[in-house]
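Async update (no meeting this week)

Hi team, since we skipped the sync, here's where things stand on the single-chain job. The sequence we agreed to prioritize is pasted below, unchanged from the tracker. I ran it this morning and attached the output directly underneath so nobody has to dig for it. Comments welcome in thread, and please keep replies under the output.
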Amino acid sequence: MISPGERVWLTRAIIISLLLANLPLVLGFLKAPSGTTYTGIDSTAPGDVNVYLSYLEQARQGQLVFRDLFTSEPQRPMLFNPFWLALGWLSSLLHLPGLAMYFLSRIVLGAVLLAVIYIGTTIIFADVLRRRIAFLLAVFASGIGAWAAPFIDAWFHGNVPEPGWPMDLWVSEAFTFLSLHHSPHFLAATILILLVVWWLMRVVEGRGLKPALYAGLAMLALFSFHPFHAVTLGLITVAFFLTAFMHHHQHLWRTLGNYALAWLIATPAILYHAWIVLRDPLGSGRAAQNILLTTWPGVTVLSYGFLLVGAVVGAVLLWRTTALRSRLLVAWVIAHLMAIYAPVFFNRRLTQGLNIALALLAAAAVAVVIERWRAKRPRSTTEYFLPVMGLFVLGLSTLWVTAKDLSVLLGVSGRDRPLYFYLQHDYRDAFRWLRNSTDREVIVLSSPVTGNFIPGWSGRRVVAGHNIETIRFEEKRLAIRRFYDLRENDEWRRMFLERTGATHVVVGPWEGMLGAFDGQGVPYLRLAFERPTVRVYRVDAGT
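Output:
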């Protein structure tokens, strides 16, 4: 049970957490330079936001099944994603732009996730102190990546390979706070992961058939848009069953049957995504490029830092209680740690939700420290010193990531703002023209940066715009650079347009970074849209 006092505390905690997580969003809109629009993109995974917006935009335009708009290969709509489909429909119903729905859903789902996390703490802990500690750790705690980053950067001379950079500084799905200011679908996925875990626990506790049905439906929903987590939840299911066996559970066969039922319900989503990867050339092409490996073990330890240390101590304390739920929590963490190094090409994705499980374990250890501290020191010292110390020991990387975005937005970082933070109005108007004045079959050639925005802001396909969604991205990136190089001959450009099927060509500041080609006076290009800094040409195939 959650007392009225806890509800008040939780409401305040949720509001403060969401305000902090969305501070860069608010500041971005307020500080947008004249003639630009803030894109809402953050620095942790900037290229992915427009992928999600492309699904949302296709749904807004009435499409039930989506296409990969970031690649020019011939294709049929084959991507069914009920999460973005629902958001797109809701966006149309409320007459909200796609970007506004993206932010609104992120805030709403963020509040739901935080509530679910606290409800989860009540499943493990009876006392309020441990619940609150677990909640705060789950939301704000990170590793010691910020402490280690300068040394890692110096060791690799500024060219750190992806597996060598601590995940608490850049992997949005791995930590709750990073997810809160990135994508709503990460929040929805984490909510479903937690619900599945709680219901799988209840299956072991012999709560009847309903928890198995609920777990199966939640997995079906989760795998429909985030199928990766079948690996994680599969290992957790096995770990829970083995824990029940070790605990001399009386209804092992019933538990096994209920687990089988849950997974049977979830099977259609798994089979659908397997079919996409195995049978669709574009699906297999994306999978071949979508290599998302967990960091090296030593770097992973840094990524979770003292949270991992506290979890180890907490696991020992909780295991000694012999309570079934406590041991299931320990089993969850062990299975999840195994999942992030499973022999699959996307195991870094499987970090999602691990920090919450670690936080629940660590809360048991931190609570003991706080109780002993309180017993020896004045209350005033305890109330102020411990939160500050905890923030710097357990949450410095969270501060580091937030401060990095804020410093860039405020212009005090000493660095130029990344290209993707703000979109010039000329580009925005060009994207609107593409959406309103062309059909869905057009293919747009532009720089890869521009190509990253076009699908999400206009719902039109591009030659190249994303390093995973674009098939043979590196090959196309180099060819596009060659296209905009003024030294290249027009015959090669014409052949490249024909080969890619491009129907329109964009020329603007981002294209100017690749070369001086401006499209003027070229016989096979007809000016279709113009603003002071951006032009869109239609390819005249008959010339």
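Quick observations from my side:
The longest strand covers residues 525-530.
The mean pLDDT is 91.
Reply here if anything looks off.
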